Amino acid sequence: MTTAPAEPTIDNAVRRSGKIGVLLVNLGTPDGTDYASMRRYLKEFLSDRRVIEWSRLYWYPILYGIVLNTRPGKVGKAYELIWNKERNESWLRTYTRNQAELMAKTFADRPQVVVDWAMRYGQPTIASRMEALQQQGCDRVLVFPLYPQYAAATTATVNDKAFEALLKMRWQPALRTVPAYPGDPVYIDALAASISKHLATLDWEPEVVLASFHGIPKSYSDQGDPYYFQCQETARLLRAKLGWPEEKLQVTFQSRFGPEEWLQPYTDKTVERLAKDGVKRLAVINPGFVSDCLETLEEIAGQAGESFHHNGGEKFAHIPCLNDSAEGMAVLNHIVRRELEGWL
Ligand SMILES: C=CC1=C(C)c2cc3[nH]c(cc4nc(cc5[nH]c(cc1n2)c(C)c5CCC(=O)O)C(CCC(=O)O)=C4C)c(C)c3C=C
Ligand SMILES: [Fe+2]
Ligand SMILES: [Fe+2]
């Protein structure tokens, strides 16, 4: 529901302006692991034309006839395995909130900056937080889609939603969006530090480390989405930073959905092949995920680890995402300050 606009007096005009909002936005998350919550979440997610580009005439019968009947139960069970029981929410939500709260503290000396967070699918919505920022006096908003590599299915759909929220406002804030940062040196340094730190806790050295990115359908890439090349750029710079050859840090793509061909090589097939080829020690990092979530905790730490052992591998490690770590916050704080230049 839209809040009634404040009366247009000079006092209200001053009160409702002069501040700068920073809105961190991640993908989203179901409110619970039960069937109804999962269905509501998947329905919103999989109805997004930026995510599923097929004709609605073809897709909706499949979505409503099959996917929304079968997938909520199956995926709900997977979410249960990785649910943050302490807060009764997904880790993606916990980390995103922590990131916003930690970033807000770094602006203690800049009280005109208000940091908030939202989800593209589920709660809190982008529109509700944009409105809240405006009510607090933000007449400029920096929207930060939390994806280091640009994809239309992630970055663009966040930006679409933010601009859609402005459609209904008479007095719009100025809006800036944060570009992807696949080669940012602070980001690359943070990934390298996180790998070194994590590997130092193991009593074994991996023969291969997979940099596993979320996939997209190959057709999206063929139509001009830069995502594939930005993932390769991140991996190339990370290799250079670590001084590793290409065989040691290999790029793969995970989380396929549907029957189409997706970006290759696939993570699940690569894990299986490496184990069958005699690789005994494997680690996986997810550089494209700002925070751990279902796709990293269940699909990689859980399923990929199991598959590696099942096919003859001996040691497997999942390197956590940057999350709300000091290195992770250094990246987010650096990008935000750079993008606020001229406003601050
Ligand atoms: C065609 C479908 C999908 C595309 C394209 C896609 C791209 C994409 N997704 C992420 C990041 C995340 N995806 C997550 C979950 C998830 N993704 C899809 C489908 C597509 N993603 C589905 C259906 C789901 C839900 C789970 C499932 O049903 O399998 C998540 C996790 C969210 C959580 O709450 O934990 C993230 C994060 C990226 C970065 C990306 C393209 C680059
Ligand atoms: Fe996804
Ligand atoms: Fe998945």
Q: How many separate structural domains?
A: 2
> Biggest sheet: strands side by side, in what order?
2-1-3-4
Structural class: alpha/beta
Reported by name, the CATH topology of the largest domain is Rossmann fold
Strand content: 15-25%
For the secondary structure, the number of strands is 8
Distance between the termini: 32 Å
Helix content bin: 40-55%
Overall radius of gyration: 21 Å
Query: What's the number of helices?
Result: 12
Largest sheet: 4 strands, parallel
Order of helices and strands: HEHHHEHEHEHEHHEHEHEH
Overall body shape: globular
CATH-level-2 architecture of the largest domain: 3-Layer(aba) Sandwich
EC number: 4.98.1.1
Family: Belongs to the ferrochelatase family.
GO cellular component, one term: cytoplasm
Protein name: Ferrochelatase
Feature tags:
single chain; 344 residues; alpha/beta; Rossmann fold; 2 domains; four-stranded parallel sheet; 16% strand; binds the ligand C=CC1=C(C)c2cc3[nH]c(cc4nc(cc5[nH]c(cc1n2)c(C)c5CCC(=O)O)C(CCC(=O)O)=C4C)c(C)c3C=C; binds fe (ii) ion
Can you characterise this structure?
- The protein is an alpha/beta fold.
- The protein has 2 domains: 13-180 and 328-339, 3-Layer(aba) Sandwich (Rossmann fold); 185-319, Rossmann fold (3-Layer(aba) Sandwich).
- It has helices at residues 10-15, 35-46, 56-82, 91-106, 126-135, 152-167, 185-200, 218-222, 227-242, 267-276, 294-310, 326-339; strands spanning 19-28, 113-121, 138-145, 174-177, 208-214, 249-254, 281-285, 315-319.
- The chain has a 4-stranded parallel sheet, with helices on both faces.
- Strand 7 (281-285), helix 11 (294-310) and strand 8 (315-319) form a beta-alpha-beta unit.
- Helix 5 (126-135) packs across helix 6 (152-167) and helix 7 (185-200) crosses helix 9.
- The longest helix has 27 residues, at 56-82.
- The protein is globular.
- It binds the ligand C=CC1=C(C)c2cc3[nH]c(cc4nc(cc5[nH]c(cc1n2)c(C)c5CCC(=O)O)C(CCC(=O)O)=C4C)c(C)c3C=C and fe (ii) ion (FE2) (2 copies).
- GO terms for molecular function: ferrochelatase activity; metal ion binding.
- It holds the Pfam family Ferrochelatase.
- Fe(2+) binds at residues 214, 295.
- Its main location: cytoplasm.
